From TrEMBL:
PANTHER family xref list: PERIPLASMIC BINDING COMPONENT OF ABC TRANSPORTER (PTHR30290), PERIPLASMIC OLIGOPEPTIDE-BINDING PROTEIN-RELATED (PTHR30290:SF10)
InterPro entries: Peptide/Ni-bd (IPR030678), SBP_5 (IPR039424), SBP_5_dom (IPR000914)
Secretion signal span: 1-18
UniProt subcellular location: Cell envelope
Family: Belongs to the bacterial solute-binding protein 5 family.
Keywords: Signal, Transport
Domain Solute-binding protein family: 99-526
Pfam family, one: SBP_bac_5
CDD domains, sorted: PBP2_thermophilic_Hb8_like
Chief location: other
Keyword Transport among record annotations: yes
The protein's name: Peptide ABC transporter substrate-binding protein
Amino acid sequence: MFLAHTATGRRWALVAGAAITSGALLTGCSGGGTSSSGGHSTDTINYALPANFTPNWILPVGTASHLNTNNSSISQSLWEPLIAYDGSTGEVGWNKNNSLATAADFAKDSKSVTITLGNRHWSDGKPITSRDVEFWFNLVKANKADWASYSPGKAPDNWTSLKIVDDTHFTITFDKAYNKQWMLANELSMIRPMPQHVWDKTGDSDAVSDLDRTPAGAKKVWKYLNSAAKNISGYATDPLWKTVSGPYTLKSFSTAGRVELTANAKYDGGGKANIRHVNLLPFTTTDAEANALRAGTVDYGYINATDLSQEESFKAKGYTVKPWAGWAITYMPYNFNNPAMGAVFKQLYARQAIQMSVDQTSLAKVIFNGTAVPTYGPIPQGQASDFVSPEQKKNPYPFDTAKAKQLLTSHGWTEQNGTMVCTDAGSGDDQCGAGVDKGTKFEMRVLSQSGSTVTDNMMSALQSSFSKTGIKFTIKTAPVNSVLSQSGQCKSGDPGCKWQLSFFGTAGSWYFPAYPSGDSLFQTGGGSNFGSYSNPSVDKLIAQTTTSESPAAVQEYSAALAKDLPVIWLPEPDYQVSVVKNGLDGFAQDSLANFHPAMWKWTNK
């Protein structure tokens, strides 16, 4: 029997460097193509994308509704990061083979860094220079509110200047001294050099100029590029996307999610593609994908955790079954501004009652077949690290529906026909709380990802346990991209503020960069703070994690959010249970949840 990893079996290795992204959400039909047979070499691989996680964005600058991890992996195969930080070799570290930078030298006072670029070229032969980095910097700075990785006070706010030294050197100055580890892992890693000589314009027929060097011009360029990126059916033919720096170029990209990559013949970096043709195949359900595995039309796929009993049958067909562990947390965000339930969610006692109604241990064991670990706070717990506080480890709110129910009844709620109702409105210690009207029913609605049996089973289990507390829990499903687009930040009166809870994380809701700070997720106004959670004391703790070199800063943040419950914490599963054709080698599964097709290669075994 295949066994999942345990928290004590792995250790997170944080090395000075940068993460691939500032964090990514995990957000299906089989395809053809030549697959391996009997371990013989081939120039093609068929890779199965997660069910209903359809790629829908190509621009290497993410917006809130396009944070699907698969978008990031595809984009990075086309446009390499300045500093790639991943676990594709088995240990998380700076992957210089697939980075455009060769060095990052901090000043002694930690208030600036000078980056050195390698001798690299775009696929059209033009050199990659500091000007291409400045182009990215100018676009992000002028359009930060639309950039999904933006958090007020963080990049680009805390980057006071970018000065070009020469074609291969530039210096970024900060507004103060920062934790160098955090700055590299969570900020500098977000930089994506883009071809200024091709993209710096406002229309397809326009001549390229230095428009990005004024805020007004940068806004126009941003609008043009984002508009072009919305035309998914045009990705493979639009000249904009032909100039790349990565090991692959784009051959085709369908609106249904099928993507074909082909090796970049002009690539001059160290991470050259081993397999010439890569087919990324979408599936609507995990069952459909598993059938494709059985038929031999998928080389690198996955199965449900509930199907681990079938491991031997896949081995007999020439596959190896292995877990893909992730550096992530899984949760359901509250919409604190929802007009019906926002006032209830703002009550800590109510969130405590909800959390005490979640039996994470049973969910991990039964629903995920042992391939998940409970999560009790904002730091990943599937891999041991010095970031997790004792408070988070020990679980401040153990599963206890009787205690959860008593907590509600002691705060003005009375059970009526199986559902709690606020019968004592007011702000007193024994009342429902500020803004909660008399007669309010404790009824929550979740918009959950479709296409996953595991997700469906977990939602049903939650519905059952919530009912024991007197909380009515209704479930609506939609594809992940739809869930993300309908679960954005909003104000109470906005038409798009009707969502109450959302879930998009059977494979993990949020994959961190190497340093797991919460500025995007839980800081007031954070770019991925979907539910508009806000706590001034937590904001201060988050700020400390970015400036202090001490692990204590992250642990204090961990403890605070384990207690304050900004979201509903849920078990963190392996990213997926992979099923890989024998003979496919050359890589480790990246715990930062990116796939790296350039590293894949067929070997004779």
